[in-house]
Design a protein that fits this description.
This protein has helices at 43-50, 68-71, 73-76, 94-104, 109-119, 135-147, 165-182, 193-199, 217-223, 236-245, 263-267, 269-278, 293-307; strands spanning 3-14, 17-28, 32-36, 58-63, 66-67, 79-82, 153-157, 185-189, 202-207, 210-216, 226-231, 250-252, 258-260, 285-290. The protein has 308 residues and is of the alpha/beta class. It starts with a strand and ends with a helix.
Length: 308
């Protein structure tokens, strides 16, 4: 797949304050790239720089292999975006807002507007004025405007903000479909980390303006911690010894259970269950837990704080 987004040594300073420092990232066609960071980490500044809304102090931004300062107007016809809370003409209805934008973009209004309203389930609100929309439906209108011209790249800052659970699922499924089936490139920032984990094919973690890490979903699956927890109805020491006899290291875990980090145990808990049953020990619990993205993220930025 072709590289669609690239930054090289991207840095942005305001006076003596460095908001983004030497960020170099790459996003391929068809990827959903999750850009994660705390409030003030530099996410929105990076996104605004990608969109040419602000000029970097140093470094370069490339879209479709072209430096954005040299890409011209045609480049932006291939990019859809939503940054922070979307704006709309408050006295216009949802349909009128989209029809106006379609005309400004030189699109066939009926085709493009009908398509995005259908994709985002906005038909029920077509004739409602924007000023009367809920925050969640205003967010959907912003997404509809970003998708209206069928762009090749979508750059979205907190796109699921204020959406209800059903709206979050709808948006997630839409973005995954656009990436997988239509080859769109989706660059998304969000503070809902587990939601990002469900859709991102690659993740970048930014902290205090520094890109700490980029990992694929597959790499995250391999490196995140996995644990097997075993409950043995008050006979933990006997179970620990039985496990140790077969080469399993078990230690005291949460809720009075034994914890095993051994890959064999995590991948084949049924073998541990059989071993303990053969030893005459009654199991009260047997469950595998995997480190969630939120815990991994906090651990990653925490280790950075310790080094600092």
């Amino acid at each position: 797949m072709a590289e669609q987004i690239r930054t090289v040594g991207l840095t942005k300073r305001y006076g003596t304050a460095t908001v983004v420092q030497d960020v170099s990232l790459s996003v391929q066609q068809g990827e959903v790239y999750g850009f994660l960071g705390l409030n003030g980490a530099g996410k929105t500044t990076t996104i605004r720089t990608l969109l040419g809304m602000i000029k970097p102090t140093s470094g370069d931004v490339f879209l479709f292999g072209k430096r954005i300062s040299q890409g011209g107007g045609k480049l932006w016809n291939r990019v859809g975006y939503m940054v922070e809370m979307p704006a709309a003409y408050p006295g216009f209805t949802v349909r009128e807002n989209l029809l106006l934008l379609a005309k400004l973009r030189g699109l066939k209004p009926s085709d493009s507007v009908d398509r995005v309203m259908r994709e985002l389930n906005l038909n029920a609100y077509a004739d409602r004025k924007a000023k009367h929309l809920s925050l969640g439906n205003m967010q959907k209108l912003g997404l509809a405007k970003a998708l209206l011209h069928n762009p090749d790249i979508l750059i979205l800052d907190e796109p699921t903000n204020a959406l209800d659970p059903a709206g979050i699922v709808e948006t997630r499924e839409l973005l995954i479909r656009l990436a997988k089936q239509e080859g769109k490139t989706v660059f998304i920032s969000s503070h809902i980390l587990e939601e990002v984990a469900k859709m991102a094919t690659r993740i970048g973690i930014i902290h205090k303006g520094v890109l700490l890490q980029e990992i694929t979903a597959g790499e995250f699956e391999k490196i995140r911690q996995k644990r097997l927890y075993v409950g043995v109805a008050g006979k933990r020491e006997a179970a620990r010894l039985a496990l140790a006899d077969k080469g399993y290291l078990a230690r005291e875990g949460k809720e009075g259970m034994l914890e095993l980090a051994d890959e064999r145990a995590v991948r084949h808990p049924e073998l541990v269950a059989r071993l303990l049953a053969d030893a005459g020990l009654l199991l009260s619990a047997l469950k595998v837990e995997e480190e969630e993205l939120e815990a991994y993220f906090l651990k990653t930025i925490g280790s950075k704080e310790v080094r600092a």
